[in-house]
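Input/output pair, single chain:
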Amino acid sequence: MIQGIGASSGIAIGKAFVLPNWEWDLPEQKIDVGDLAREFDRLYEGIRTSKVEIEQMKDELREVVGAEESYIFDAHLAILDDPVFMNEIQGIIQRQYKAAEVAVKEAIDHFVTMFDLLDDEYMKERALDIKDVGNRLLKHLLGAPEITLPSDTQPFILIAKELSPSQLAHLNPSHVLGIATLAGSTTSHSSIMARALGVPLVVGIESKLEEAIQTGDMLIIDGELGVVHLHPEQSLVDLYTSKQIMYGEKKQRLKGIVSVKPVTQDGKEMELSANISSLKELDVALSSGTNGVGLFRTEFLYMDRSRLPQEEEQFEVYRTVAEKLGSKPLIIRTLDIGGDKHLDYFELPEEDNPFLGYRAIRICLDKTDLFKTQLRAILRASHYGNVKIMYPLISSVDEVQAANALLEQCKQELRTEGLPFADKVEVGIMIELPAAVLIADLLADEVDFFSIGTNDLIQFTLAVDRMNEQISHMYEPYHPSVLRMIKLTVEAAKHKGIHVGVCGEMAGDLKALPIWLALDIDELSMSAHSILPVKERLLTLKQQESRDLFNSLLSCRTSSQIHEKLRAVQGEQPAADFPAVSKSS
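Output:
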């Protein structure tokens, strides 16, 4: 068993096809002064051809994965227009008298090496984008053919050192059972596209790979557990085949409860909503019977492009989502960048600890023009549906009041301009900082609802960076302190009579469902794919029994005791579904 990182869930069983590296080693070619004009012409023609090709891929991909995921290629187009990247290439040609393809290769190597040395996952991923774009440009300069995939229709599991969005865009999903890459991360553009295409993907297996995978080798990929089985024994193939069948049966069973109300056996109804980043995710949520959108992450509108989105562009997206939802609620979270989320065109300061620094509402209250553009777009969209506004990373009453003051300015501007918006737009905040928990009673006087962002709340409560491999095992959602933080927040909301929901990863965790029932949470907002499994579990529970269980959890002194009690309720065994398998299996 080769342990990697699960980046797109699902199971694939089949033979490997190893994708050759899409790279070239070029001898240094010097040119004469008189050839400079010709080399620049070749460069510019290569750029024009590459742009046309990227635009075509973007259009083709839009039909398959939706408009939002296809915007990934806007970042590639932006690289070809980037003055720093292009000046580097032009400078090598003009000052060092090197051929255009050599200059492009040296510029790629320079920027990729520079970004790879940075301790920043986002910049490492952008290095792959530069390599992808640069290699496309090289291909045209060299007249090199595309790397071809198997011509027969026998489906295969694709193995690559790293997979670029361009390469993934050329794949036929019906021929690709799954993908494993030696490098990569769950937040890379390729991972986003694989999830949109529904292709199982495991990344980051290089350091665990003891023998090379060859074309034709039998493999099993588990995109949920993040493992690859090389040369599996027949017994393991049979086990995973059974699991595939079970997944299919479960999928059919869950379809039967799409229109069933999410109500416990003793009558407690829970709103089950979706977290979305795109219109494609909204379509999946609607097909799963979502109550609405409990968290619309608006960052995708700002990322992978060369400039800030204008008001009209944002308004059109928000309006489309609102109209598709009809009367169902749409909670739009205002821009949440900083930390691990960067914009290529928006320079953030270098910080020793960006997660505790200049991010989210702090940026919006500092860059008020940026913030007001988004608020105006959201307000205008409220005329077309049940739209609500939510501020992230709130730590004080002052921040809420300042944000609401800007919101009122936007309302007055729209009235003056004669642009319609809803008379009453509810405003809420994310509770994701311990400071917000401890003043939840004060914050509840300022807003209409709370949404508990468990991911950051856990991270900040325990002072544990969940992305740090050395301490990630300490990131414990069921730590006694976390349960107490959540309990304090809910009690403050209930006392003040405001709506309270949960929108972090714990919202979709079946194990946590009795906790939310016991606390009388109004809404759970989760990945669209989690809605039906959570509903199925909810239909089997009783709220009163959940309250009894939660009271016993509060008496637990350790996380392991809490896990043990929750497992006992679900009838789970502590052991994993699949036994450990040797590397040779």
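The chain has a mean pLDDT of 86. Residues 36-65 form the longest helix (30 residues).
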